[in-house]
Design brief:
- Helix content is 81%, strand content 0%.
- It has 2 helices and no strands.
Length: 72
């Protein structure tokens, strides 16, 4: 059904949407979409950084022989 739209059909849809919602409403909507994409990218970056920090941390086992020598 949507295979036959083409460029003239897309332009017609864009004009109808612009007339229905107005330029101000569409620009504010696109601004919100941009903010959402930015927040998503920041969240992915922060999550990746947390995973990298968790794998890099030095974890010593509870029964470390080196610690036992220091206590004696």
């Amino acid at each position: 059904m949507l295979n036959n739209i083409g460029l003239p059909g897309l332009l017609l849809i864009a004009v109808v949407v612009l007339v229905l919602f107005g330029r101000g409403k569409i620009s504010s909507l696109m601004g919100e979409v941009g903010k959402g994409i930015t927040a998503f990218k920041k969240g992915v970056k922060d999550g990746t950084q947390e995973i990298e920090d968790a794998t890099v941390t030095d974890v010593t086992p509870a029964n470390d022989p080196a610690k036992d020598k220091d206590k004696v």
